[in-house]
Design a protein that fits this description.
single chain; mainly alpha; 2 helices; about 75% helix
Length: about 60
């Protein structure tokens, strides 16, 4: 595996987890990781989109 592909997978997984926790905390009126849930959801979305972009640019050879 190339380092770009590994980073893409890691960013996608971290982003999906952050996005899910952030959205769940927004609707349950709680804190996400002790932080503002909107911030966690936005950062999770950024990480998720970055990871998907990295994985899309990596060739499958």
């Amino acid at each position: 595996m190339k380092s770009k592909q590994i980073l893409g997978i890691v960013f996608t997984l971290v982003g999906a987890i952050g996005l899910a926790v952030g959205v769940m905390s927004i609707f349950n009126k709680g804190l996400a990781f002790g932080q503002n849930p909107w911030g966690v959801a936005i950062i999770g979305g950024i990480f998720f989109l970055t990871g998907m972009g990295l994985m899309r640019t990596v060739s499958s050879n």
